[in-house]
Amino acid sequence: MAEAGPQPIIIKKINKGHAGAHGGAWKIAYADFVTAMMAFFLLLWLLNSVTQEQLEGISNYFAPVTASSSTSGSGDILGGKTITEDGAAANSTSRDAVTVDLPPPKAGTGGEDNADTQSDAEGNGKADATAKDLEKAEQDQFEKAKQELEETIAGIPQMRQLAESLMVDNTPEGLRIQLVDQDGLAMFPSGGADMYVHTKRLIELVAKVINELPHKLAVSGYTDSVPFVTDNGYSNWELSADRANSARRSLQHFKVPEERFSRVVGKAATEPLMPDDPTNARNRRLSIVLLKGTGENNPAAAAPEKQDVLPGLSDIKRQQLQEGGSSAIPLEGAPTGSGIVLELQPAIEAQ
Q: Taking the model in full, what pTM does it have?
């Protein structure tokens, strides 16, 4: 029998890949990291949004509210004392339990800043509500005065023809009463500032309504656009101002106090009532405005002031008024120290 040949040697090679480096273990770690970061930022958001009382509640939850009544950790008969030859002596290593009150936590706007903001918001809300109530009450006064004036004119037969000459409306500045010329029924003679008799009767009715309200008055005179200039330069400007002052004198004659007048001006033809027809007779008129929020006995004048958009702006303005009282602006190009300034002074209003 023939002998068998040598057995072949078989070498098995195992190629180890890099699948371990590209497995999914890192995804688990990354997911844990993202979860922890989300929880961290959620915690920051909660601390920033909660109030001071809620923060104190959380602090009290984690802080013990009771302490051990014993003077040592043993709580036994000896009470933390040792026995010596001289008797029971206090052990220096045993100390009384002490409870320390930590200050309340503060975090973002949820602490004292948030409380102050909430209180300021509540105060501003109440002030706005009060101001709105006062404005509504003042508006009701204006409506009542308007109705009373219209009913008075309609109730007097001799004055009914002047109903078209009286216009009463509410404006952002206040209640406006206008005495308007009609075709064939003027309030003043042409080029003159002396009232007709029927104009004085109309002023008398207006004065009775004005005396029932505390508001300051603004009287304005208007003319049409027809050119009017005399040899001495007297024009529609002077004429409108003289008619406004004539109305002021008549109102004072009918018991309207002088201190009630805030301004008396002449505006000529700058603000026509009929813009499409500047020469219309209705452009010649007198305007008497009861100014909103004015008057000594007017509750609306004591309405809370709105807070400044920039904190401290009112204090800066007040300090500037106390120091100078006028705004001095150096002229452009003037040398330093030359003393050349441009002072802005309030205009002197006509009386």
A: 0.52
